[in-house]
Structures are given as C-alpha cells and as structure tokens.
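Attaching the record inline, Q. Sequence:
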Amino acid sequence: MPAETTAQPEDAAADVLPVPGPRGLPLIGSLPAFARDPLAFFVTLRGHGDLVRWRLGPQRALFLSRPEHIGELLTGVETVFRHPELGWAFKLVLGDGVVTSEGPAWRRKRALVQPAVRPRQVRSYAATMAESAAATAERWCAGGRIDVRREMLALTQRIAVRTLFGADTAGREDVIGRAMDVAQRAIGDEFRGVTLFLPPWVPTPGRRRLKAAVRVIDAEVARVTDARRRGGEERDDLLSRLLAAVDEEGRPLTDREVRDEAVTLYIGGHETTGTTLTWAWYLLARNPAARDRLTDELSRVLGDRDPRFDDLKDLRWTEQVVKETLRLYPPVWLMTGIAKEDSVLDGRPVPEGTVLWSSQWSAHRDARWFPAPGEFRPERWEGEEAAALPDHAWFPFGGGARACLGARFAMVEAVLVLATLARRFHVDVDPGEIPPRPGLTLQPGREVTATLRAV
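Structure, as predicted:
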C-alpha cells in the first residue's frame, strides 16, 4: 500500500483551482477503482493535486487534500454543506441518531447526548475500562498465542456494554456483540459495492442477514430500556443518562431515539477503539525502540499497579503511541459532505449536489505535514513538530460541529487499556505485513496473531 505520493510543493497556496482526476468509465466513473482499493485510489487522487474532480457512479465528486480545505468541509457541514446519505444499511443500523440526522433534529439530539460523554462523565467510566482490561490480562499467560483483533474487540465490547447498559446485559453480551458484528460488516460491504446505489427494496443476501441482526439489536436494547424504565433507580451508565435527558422544552428522548443513540455510542466505543488497539500492538511489535520507551514509562508512572484516570496526564508516551496509531491507521478513513445551493470552498462556488470527499488515510500520510509519513514515530506528537502541524491535518475523529462525540471516551479507553495490558505483557505480533481492509472502519486485512511474553 503506497504511503505517500508527490503532490504540490509544500509552500503552494491554499487558493488552488480544481484539477481533473482519473477519467473513469462511462456511467460508472471511477467506481471500479474505488471499490477495488479505496485507500490506494485516494492516494492516487492526492497525486493529481489538492482539489481533484472525479466521478463515483452518477455522483459528481471533489477530493480535498489540503488541511485548509478539509477544515472548510468539516466545519461547514450543517451550514455550507449537508450531511450525506450513507447508505441503506447504515441508516437501518443507526436509525435517526445524532450521526445520521440533520438540521433542528440533529441539534436537539446532539444537545441531549453530549452531556453523557463530557469529560466528567468519561472520568466515571475509567475504572470500568481499566478493570475490564485487567480481567483480560488475568486470562493471558506468557507463551500463550492470541488472535489480537479478537481479543481487543472482545475487550472493548465488554467495556461498551458495561458503560452503556450496566449490569442489565450480564450473560447477553455475546448476543449483542454477534449482531453488531454482522451489522458493521454489512455497512462496510454495502459502502464499497454497487449495492450503495441499489434501492432499499432490492433484496440481497447481505441485506437479509443485516435485517435479522438489527431485529436482535432492537430486541436487546428494548429489553434493557424497558427494564430500566420500570426499575426507576438511578445509575451511572450511558443508558441512564440518555433516559434522563430532556430538551429545552422538557421533552425526553423517545424509546426509538434512545435505541438509535445507544447503538451509535456502542459502535463508537467498541469497534473503533478495538481496531485502534489492534493496530497499536502491530506497530509496537514492529518498532522495538518505541515499545521499550512504553515499558519504561509504564514502570516509572505505574510501578506494579494498574492505571487510573489521574495517571493519564503522566502517560504522555502511551498517549502519543495511540495518536500515532490513529494517524497511520485511522478507524474512520473518510469524511464526506454534499454541496448545498450557493456552496463555496476556498472562496469559489461549488455546484450544488457535488460530493466533497476527504480521507484521513490520505491526509495523515501526506509528507508535507508528516515527515517520513510511512514511519511509526510517536515522538512526532511532542515539541515543535506537533505545534507546527496545521489544523485538520490530523482528524481521526472528524471536526467541526459534527466531530465525534465519543472522541474523549475513545482516547481515554485506548490509553488506559494499552497501559494496563502493556504493563504486564509484550504482544509479539507474528512477522509480516498486514494490509488494511476498509469497511465501516479500517480493519486488518488478515488475522493478527501474536505470542504473549511477560514484561
């Protein structure tokens, strides 16, 4: 997978004209190249210039590479640009939650959901994160062999279920987890294939599997929500906060709205963090010096105990490992918006209906902003190099008003889990390149197996 391409000089002005990209094929444009390898295709687009015209099927598209333009897109959704339709599968799973809704409905839901993931609330979930990671470490043994991705997703699933639903799902975590896995795969498969353009009424085997999984998800969330409403006791989990939230007019979320936000928070707290941790172990295994520095920091800060929330300020290298992992392998690998009437970018009009694309994968590997972009260098996140980074050159959680609400939750979880496990074990991932596979999130393209070694 190419890590960088030659683009415009570093001192090129942001005020640039759009240039033509690949010619594509009649009717379908660049759909085959995009579907075959979206990541390589985005890097190819960046090689054409900073603003590149192209077509995906019937869609007229513009690809953005400069941080200034990406910032305009991210901060302009809901004002200059509208939120895109993300496909039938995405809508079926997430419903009308804060990720998919627009306008006044989006503003109301964001105001209701945001308090549940504010820093003070995330702090209250930190103990659950560390305790869950410690339980995983207790199962591991030196010399043991593990499937890293399976272990990390199982761990973040337990954390997501415990912080979201509390004890009401005890013994049912795997039921929710399996259904969510089917749903997430279906979203990724649809997005990369021609079914993205098929009407909802067209049946496919994948859509039938997805419908069955969503029925399971709906039933589980409804069961827990109903029990919580009937019980009436106050709890400190995310579901309780959603049920207690009311808008400016005193209206609570409906059961359907609670369901949609709960599923959104689950996916954000499970899939993305589990994937990030999987890539982190892979990168640390390939970079022994970075792993040694992590070991030294954990020994100095923690000694023989597990981390707590208050340790985060001292776990600087651990956090830099996570940030550099998010740069090289961002779970969310693209962002899009659609031009409204009278939309502008860089002061120029953008035709209504144009789909504007930006890719974390491409932008995070641009040598203009990240020297030696293909190298794993957590030290780039300290000192002058980090201070000089342009806004929106690194945007794993999006940006603007629609930035991921769970960004703080995800960062705290990733750092605490990594510290808890790395204090006890080296995870020696088997040698060999692991290609990324883009779906709903950026997953490893093959099994990630490793041998455990005591620290």
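Confidence is low (pLDDT under 50) at residues 5-13. The longest strand covers residues 51-56.

More tomorrow.
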